[in-house]
Specification:
There is one protein chain. With 242 residues, this protein is of the alpha/beta class. The protein is built from eight helices and seven strands. The protein has a seven-stranded mixed sheet with strand order 1-7-6-5-2-3-4. Helix 4 links the parallel strand 2 and strand 3. Helix 2 packs across helix 3. It is globular, with a radius of gyration of 17 Å.
């Protein structure tokens, strides 16, 4: 594991998602996903979330035999992409209707991927079972967000990384969030619930949001769909070592 990966959080930036670097990564990820029937992204916020996490931590890791838990996997290409780099992946979902497709992808790629269907935020894994936990746009769908973060930290080994993206709603800036999507975090809730979580190294670092990027991203996001009246963020966090 790359010890120099630092805790970091950011709101989405239009300049980044339109950058050649981010576009190159999404082209590679979409090309990988296409023949496998996995999701491809060209105009949703994932075109910022995936490459941001990749370039701010995931690309620096040595994936061979790394133990990865991916929350809310569905047909996300990322866990399969990382398995193809050598990771031992456990996908975690609340429904199992995609199992036959997952099995076909696993056989096609000949990778080490298993899955676990879990109906709540409580995870059936031992403490410190994984090197990495990824959670991309999942926490807004989780009812017990505090438990979700506790469980994410619990299954991480000391020194392990949590890589997550999340929806954020700021009503004071006239943002709104569709009820069918769950409940987005607020800035203060993210800081209290996630950034200051006692087992993450980030607890001692100040949290400075790049609020100047909100207006530009919100304009772009609402152009993709009228109900996208909210912003997204992403974070890399490291669990404290004893």
């Amino acid at each position: 594991m790359a010890a120099h990966v630092q805790p970091l959080v950011s709101l989405a930036r239009v300049q980044e998602l339109k950058s050649p670097q981010f576009r190159d990564f999404m082209e590679r990820l979409n090309a990988f996903a296409a023949p496998l029937g996995l999701h491809q992204y060209t105009n949703l916020s994932k075109i910022w979330e995936y490459p941001w996490l990749w370039y701010h931590g995931l690309s620096e890791l040595h994936w061979n035999h790394m133990r990865l838990a991916d929350l809310g996997s569905e047909l996300s290409p990322l866990p399969w992409y990382l398995a193809n780099l050598g990771a031992n992946v456990t996908m975690i979902e609340v429904h199992g209707e995609l199992e036959s497709h997952w099995r076909w992808i696993r056989d096609t790629l000949n990778v080490c991927v298993e899955w676990c269907v879990v109906p709540s935020e409580r995870l059936p894994f031992s403490d410190s079972a994984f090197d990495i936990v990824t959670s991309l746009s999942v926490i807004e769908h989780q009812a017990d967000k505090a438990m979700a973060i506790r469980e994410m930290s619990r299954i991480l080994k000391p020194g392990g990384l949590a890589a997550l993206s999340f929806d954020l709603c700021m009503p004071d800036l006239q943002m709104s969030y569709p009820d069918r999507n769950g409940r987005a975090l607020s800035l203060s809730e993210f800081e209290a619930l996630v950034w200051r979580y006692p087992e993450f190294v980030s607890r001692g670092l100040p949290l400075v949001w790049n609020l100047d990027d909100v207006t530009g991203f919100l304009t772009w996001h609402q152009a993709t769909a009228s109900h996208h009246n909210y912003v997204v963020g992403a974070a890399i966090l490291r669990k404290l070592a004893p």
